Amino acid sequence: MHELIGKLSARKESFKDNKISVSQLGQLIDLVEQGTITRSSFDIATANKLSCRILGTSGKSLLRHLLDNPTQATPLEIAQELKLLAFSHLNTPAAQGEGKDDLLEKLCAQAIEALPSEVESFRKGNVNVLNRLVGHVMKDSRGRANAQAARITIERIIKGEQ
Question: Which residue range(s) make up the domain with 53?
Answer without folding.
Answer: 2-81
